[in-house]
Design a protein that fits this description.
Keywords: 4Fe-4S, Flavoprotein, FMN, Iron, Iron-sulfur, Metal-binding, NAD, Quinone, Translocase. With 426 residues, the protein is of the alpha/beta class. The protein is built from 17 helices and eleven strands. The chain has three domains: 21-231, Rossmann fold (3-Layer(aba) Sandwich); 234-322, Roll (Ubiquitin-like (UB roll)), CATH 3.10.20; 327-424, Up-down Bundle (de novo design (two linked rop proteins)). The radius of gyration is 23 Å and the shape is globular.
C-alpha cells in the first residue's frame, strides 16, 4: 500500500494542458512564492534544512546544507544552476517533470534563488531534449509575462533572470563542474573538487547546483512545511520520490512514492513483471549503481536502505531485467556506454574503460579466456577510487556487482572457449 500523501510532485501530470501557467495557477501553483518572498532568505534555508530534503540527482547531499554553504556578504554574484542534463542510463524522471509541470521547477528556481541571494539562474538541459527545451522556454516566457521573473518579482524588490541553456549531449556534462565549464563556453570536463561550486562555481562565484526534482520539491515544502514533508519517506531520507521503471515491466514509466518504497511495491504499481517472466536482476538507481537481484525486492529504496544492501539509491532509475537476459551482455552494453562517454581527462577511466570493453566484447562473443574475470576485476580495481570523477567509479559498478551475483554466467563464457582451446591443442 503506497502512502496516501503521494502523489505530490506528479499530481498535476494528468491535468489537461498541465504545462501551462493557467493550469499551474488553477491547481495551487505560484502560491508558495509570495509566502517565500515575505520570509527572510535564511528562514527558507532553515526550512529546507528542517525538511531533510536531499539531492535527487543521485548523491543525496542535504539540500539546505548546500544552500547554507553560499557565503554571504562576499560581494560576489551568486548563481543557481539547475542540472537538467539527465543522462544516467535508465533515468527518465526530470524530463517528464519539465514536460508535464515546468512551472513547479520555475517556482522552485525563484524561491531557491531568493534564498541564496542569486539574481541569475540557468537551467542546463540535455541538448537532445529539444521538446523539453522548447517547453521550458515557453514556461519561462509565461513567468516573465506574469511578473514572477524579471525586475522586482511580485513587487518584492527581488530581481531574477532565468536562462534555459541547451547542452550538447555529453554524459559528462551532467557532472556538476563539467556542466559549469560547458555553461561558460568551454569543453565540458570535471574540475578538481574542492573548491566545491558552493564557494567557486560559475565564473568562480558561489553557485548552487541542484537537480530538477530537488528544486521542483521546494514550492511544496514552502506550502506544506518541513513537518509535512517529513511525514513521507524515512527518517534520514524523507519526502516523495519519482521512481522510473523501465525494461521488463508491464507498464514502464514514472511512479511517485515515498522514499523507502520497495521494488516489490513499485512493481505492484507497474502491473508486475512483463508477461509474468520472473525477475533476474535490476538497477536501483541507473547503471552506475551496483546491481540488485530478486533477493533485493524488499530493500527500502532510500539512500540508507540501498547502501545497507550493498548498492546506492542513485537516480532511482530502476531498470528491470527478466531471466531471459544475459548478465555479461547487459554489463558489456553499459560498459560500452561509459567508454564512449569517458571524457578522457584521467588515465584510469580513459584507458581502463577501453580495456574493459575489449575484454567483455571478447567474452560475450564466446572467446573469453580463463583469466578474463581476474583481469576484469583487476582493471576495475585500478579505476575505482583512482578516477577524477564519479564516472570512473560508476563504470565499474555493473561489472563488479554482475560478477558478484552471477559469476557462473561469466565463467561459462570463459569455460566455453577454454574447452575449445583445449580441444584444439589435444
Ligand atoms: P558528490 O557526492 O561528490 O556531490 C554531491 C553534491 O554535494 C555536489 O553538488 C557537491 O558539490 C556537493 N558537496 C559535496 N561535498 C561538499 C562539501 N564539502 N562542500 C560543499 N558542497 C559539497 O556527488 P557527484 O559527483 O556530484 O554526483 C555523483 C552522483 O551523481 C552519483 O551518485 C550518481 O548516482 C549521480 N548521477 C546522476 C546522473 C543523472 O543523470 N542524474 C548521471 C550520472 C550520475
Ligand atoms: Fe573524465 Fe572519466 Fe576521468 Fe571523469 S573519471 S574525469 S569522465 S576520464
Amino acid at each position: 500500500m503506497v502512502d496516501p500523501l503521494t502523489p505530490v510532485l506528479t499530481k498535476r501530470w494528468t491535468e489537461p494542458r498541465s504545462w501551462t501557467i493557467e493550469t499551474y495557477e488553477r491547481t495551487g501553483g505560484y502560491t508558495a512564492l509570495p509566502k517565500a518572498l515575505k520570509a527572510h532568505p535564511d528562514q527558507l534555508i532553515q526550512q529546507c534544512k528542517d525538511s531533510g530534503l536531499r539531492g535527487r540527482g543521485g548523491a543525496g547531499f542535504p539540500t539546505g546544507m548546500k544552500w547554507g554553504f553560499i557565503p554571504q556578504g562576499d560581494g560576489k554574484p551568486h548563481y543557481l544552476v539547475i542540472n537538467a542534463d539527465e543522462g544516467e542510463p535508465g533515468t527518465c524522471k526530470d524530463i517528464p517533470t519539465m514536460m508535464a509541470d515546468p512551472h513547479s521547477l520555475i517556482e522552485g528556481v525563484i524561491i531557491t534563488s531568493y534564498a541564496i541571494r542569486a539574481n541569475f539562474a540557468a537551467i542546463y538541459v540535455r541538448g537532445e531534449a529539444l521538446h523539453c527545451i522548447r517547453r521550458l522556454n515557453g514556461a519561462v516566457r509565461e513567468a516573465y509575462a506574469k511578473g514572477y521573473l524579471g525586475k522586482d518579482v511580485l513587487g518584492s524588490g527581488f530581481d531574477l533572470d532565468v536562462v534555459v541553456h541547451a547542452g550538447a549531449g555529453a554524459y559528462i556534462c551532467g557532472e556538476e563542474t563539467a556542466l559549469l565549464d560547458s555553461l561558460e563556453g568551454r569543453r565540458g570536463q570535471p574540475r578538481l573538487k574542492p573548491p566545491f561550486p558552493a564557494t567557486s562555481g560559475l565564473y568562480a562565484s558561489p553557485t548552487v547546483v541542484n537537480n530538477v526534482e530537488t528544486i521542483a520539491s521546494v514550492p511544496f515544502i514552502v506550502n506544506g512545511g518541513a513537518d509535512w514533508f517529513r511525514e513521507m519517506g524515512r527518517d534520514r531520507s524523507p519526502g516523495p520520490k519519482i521512481y522510473s521503471l523501465s525494461g521488463h515491466v508491464t507498464n514502464p514509466g514514472q511512479y511517485e512514492a515515498p522514499m523507502g518504497t520497495t521494488l516489490r511495491q513499485l512493481l505492484d504499481m507497474a502491473g508486475g513483471m512483463k508477461d509474468g517472466v520472473p525477475l533476474k536482476f535490476w538497477t536501483p538507481g541507473g547503471s552506475s549503481t551496483p546491481l540488485f537481484t530478486a533477493e533485493h525486492m524488499d530493500v527500502p529504496l532510500d539512500f540508507e536502505g540501498a547502501a545497507e544492501a550493498g548498492s546506492m539509491l542513485g537516480t532511482t532509475a530502476i531498470q528491470v531485467f527478466n531471466e531471459t537476459v544475459s548478465v555479461p551482455w547487459a554489463v558489456m552494453k553499459w560498459t560500452e556506454f561509459y567508454k564512449h562517454e569517458s571524457c578522457g581527462k584521467c588515465t584510469p577511466c580513459r584507458e581502463g574503460t577501453y580495456w574493459l570493453v575489449q575484454i567483455l566484447q571478447r567474452m560475450v562473443a564466446g572467446n573469453g579466456t580463463a583469466s578474463d574475470i581476474d583481469t576484469l576485476l583487476d582493471v576495475c580495481d585500478n579505476i575505482l577510487g583512482r578516477s577524477f570523477c564519479a564516472l570512473g567509479d560508476g563504470a565499474v559498478s555493473p561489472i563488479t556487482s554482475g560478477i558478484k551475483y552471477f559469476k557462473d554466467e561469466f565463467l561459462a563464457l570463459c569455460d566455453q572457449n577454454s574447452k575449445v582451446l583445449a580441444g584444439a591443442n589435444a
